[in-house]
Amino acid sequence: MIPSWSFAHLLILQGGHYRATSSLMHLSSFARPALFYAAWDLRFLILLGLTTLIDYTVGLAISKAQGQKWRKIYLLASILSNLTILGFFKYFNFFSDTFTTIMALCGLQVHPEHIRLFLPVGISFYTFKSISYTIDVYRRKITATRDFVHYAVYISFFPQLLAGPIERATQLLPQIAEERLISWKKIQFGVYHVFWGLFLKVFVADNMALLVNPIFTKTATPTGFEYLVAGYAFAFQIYGDFAGYSYISKGIAGILGFETMYNFNLPYFSRNPREFWHRWHISLSTWLRDYLYIPLGGNQGGRFRTNLNLMVTMLLGGLWHGANFTFIIWGAYHGALLILHRMAKDFFSHNALGVKQTFISSWLKIFLLFHAVVLGWLFFRAESFGQIMMIFNAFLGNFQFDPARHYQILKKLAFYVMPLIGVQLIQYQKDNLLAVLTMPLPLRVFLYTALFYLMTIFGLYGTQNFIYMQF
Amino acid sequence: MRFHVRLKIQSAIRYSGKLFSAIKNARVLYWFAFSVALILVGWRILGFHTDVSHTYLQISMKSSVDGTAQLYYDVGNGLSEANSVTVSVIGDQNYHDYQFRLPSLSVYGMRFDPLMSEGSVVIRHVQWMDGLGAVMQIINLKLLQPLNQIGGFTFTDQEVEVVTNQKVNDPQIGVQLSRPLTVGRGFSFWRHPVVILRILIEFVAVFFVVTIFLSFWLIWRKNIALPIYGGKIPFAMLLAFLAVITIEIMQQAKLPATASYHEVDELLYHLQTQHIHADYMLLGDSVGRQLFNNTPYLQNEKYAMLATNQAITMTGQYFIAKRYLQRNKMPRAVILLISRYYHSHLDDSLSDNYIQRTFNNFSEIFEIFLLKRDPVFTAKMLAYRLLPSFKYRLFLQKRWAGFTNAESYTGIPYDNKGSGGAARYSLLRTLKSHMEKENIPRHHLKSLLAMLDISHIPMFFLVPAINEHSMELYQEYRNSCEGLFPKLQKSYHNFHFDNDAHLLRAEYYVDEAHFNEAGLKIETQHLHEKIINIEKLIDGKTHP
Fold first, then answer.
1. Fewer CB in a 10 Å sphere around the end CB: N or C, chain A?
2. How confident is the model at residue B147 (pLDDT cuts 50, 70, 90)?
3. Burial of B137 by CB count in 10 Å (0-12 exposed, 13-18 middle, 19+ buried)?
4. Would you say the ipTM is above 0.85?
5. Phi first, then psi: what are they for B152, rounded to 5°?
6. Spatial distance between the Cα atoms of B310 and B305, rounded to a whole number of angstroms
7. How high does pLDDT run on average in chain A?
8. Which residues in chain B have Cβ-Cβ distances shorter than 8 Å to A45?
9. Which residues 202-231 on chain B approach chain A with CB closer than 8 angstroms?
10. pLDDT higher at A3 or B269
């Protein structure tokens, strides 16, 4: 659980800062999130401070450097230092274990030092934020800030500190430097986002976890049908959990006077893998596109090179989620989906076989893509590679549907997911994430009341952490 | 000069009006709502003031015969029929609270005529209370003296038994006051913070509702849309909020009083609705409950069985005892049989259902807030207190959806891949360990002792036999016997602890702590002996 006292303290005191631009005010804006973060672990704060200090200095050095060569050297220094910190704390034991396994396969026994490392909360998020800043300074998209406190507030911006989004400095830094004003409208939007985010978390995600977790325990031997249902449930769990966090983060930032990005845009209504990655975890996918895929050459180097770039990007995107082969497989799977989609698109356009988009074809694509994504989630959620093999075995050899046993699970799944799908259908139909706010007054009143009661009566409180906090 | 002052007042009114709105018509509406809210709240305050300034003498007693009791009070001019109050007494041998209204003057002495005929009454307590139910003074029963036509007047433990002579018509008991009962001037704010809070909330709510109502009325009748609240009020959210309040009030009326799945609720409901008049209060956890329930000697009305299953911890024990003492006769002793007294700082998953949901009187919420200093924890307790739908959500889940998510309370954690070992270095923990000299269960153990100490009720802390596999628990108890408990004994002379913690082989248990039949046979025998010893000790003290 989030250390609630420090969190409440942040919310209450941060509220007094609208019209605050002085350094002293900003210093306290940095100090308090720092305290909040240190509430988990004092060592986390040291690491966060180190990353902040390095990239603040590098940013200034790049902007002052005389020649392109030095600019490049400084940038490399920043990227290397960030990746070293991230790699060491997040991946050291993973690579060490992998190395031992490979050596063992070759008949060599090695006993590398196994270090008991702690994984700082949100390290992947703030490291990527910090890297994007130095790259943007290098690319002259943004001027390096001279104000250390401004930069520290950007990196430790508390609504986004634990699980993103990976907001770009180009978007957030100017807002930190500017005077912020509170308004009824911002509060209203903020409250709406927090409310919807809470609903996604406590009603959808946490209840889905109750369906998912027993299936993935080491002792369980589920049937293929149960894995399928767990896949559906996990798809909504991870969406509710992560999108819920992102909505709450956006809402809180909005109440504090900041305009931040949407991290999700109805991803399960995507019709192809490319569209899915435009709608899912937008801050990470655009980060990977801008700072990895395009520098690798993007789609400019022929078909093979493009596909290779896609695969590398998605593999690293998978690895970003954690030091586990299941994440790498998930990344590779999505890379393969993107490549397949690209090839299919080329094939159809080359042979002039493009079909006209109809209502049915559109929904069919959504249906198929959703199931492809669900399969990916099973890899993502699996505890080990062995469990992924178990899933395939169960699908192929033991796909049993037992109405007496499974009816109750399906009923629960439908019950917890239907309100979400209902609201999202309205959003999708109107192509507006704020469509609810445009509904007629009586409908809105009914919806708010209904959602409140679903949350109050069926919500789970204090039992599940946010999944993406571990990444 | 007068003109100048008038101008200043006018500009002050104008300025304060502008605090509401810059638009004159809207300002009128706001002022109107403000006035309505002020009148209503003023009327409420007046009501509360009237209630609070009328004081009562509340006598809790049981009688063997129906009749009339009369209280005479002396306001400085002696006792007289004019300065007396009568109430009807029910002769059903059950305790009832009888209230005698007193004047808003100083009372220097009283005389109580419990019956007008032959019979007997047992007086349990005498309290001077204000009109809102706050106790202003507890009158010591030792201040009662037999005056006239009283055949027997016996002080038993915490009670006075009065037997009137045969064929009497005016038995009298004198009440000697150590100091006059004087009502202070003004409204006793400090005694009723909840009332004040309620008045403030009512004021804001009335103001808010009236402005909203009038603005709707203006739109409907005259087609005028004034920009009330700057035209930015989220009406949908507000109406949804009002809908929630309405539904919650309806839920409160509709939900059955014991809409729960757990015996803690049953016990609290029992404590709230019934009087128990036992000599010994038995407190404990699930192990305590198992032993108490299986000891035949304890199965009678002499013992109030308040031990419950599940880890309601020392906090729960303390609150149960507190609720019991508020409504019932003081027991002669409290016996606490608990296997893990130090367990839980209210941060495990069970605290939700067994502490936050169940013990949420405002005083309890406040007490826990001061100890835990966790706003989210407190907010959840408040939600349980204010929203019946939230409190009884498992019941409503079953009713509405046909299933519950109650399994979450067993705590299925999401497998947290990667991170670990962070807790040791948590800044909060480090700070807390420096700042906190004692933990929550220990604090509530002390609170329980202090509460009992005031009424001179001894408490016996018993420990069941400990499973040989729970050496850590055994060691913890041994340490307490050598460290904490003797210290507590110095501060609270009513504290007695069982220095007989012993280990029992694992074959006598069904799990880590609960006994199987063979284990129960041994342990209930031990418990029986301990209870006998306690009773001997108490009887020896009471009748030396």
1. N
2. confident
3. middle
4. no
5. -135, 140
6. 15
7. 83
8. 427
9. 229-230
10. B269
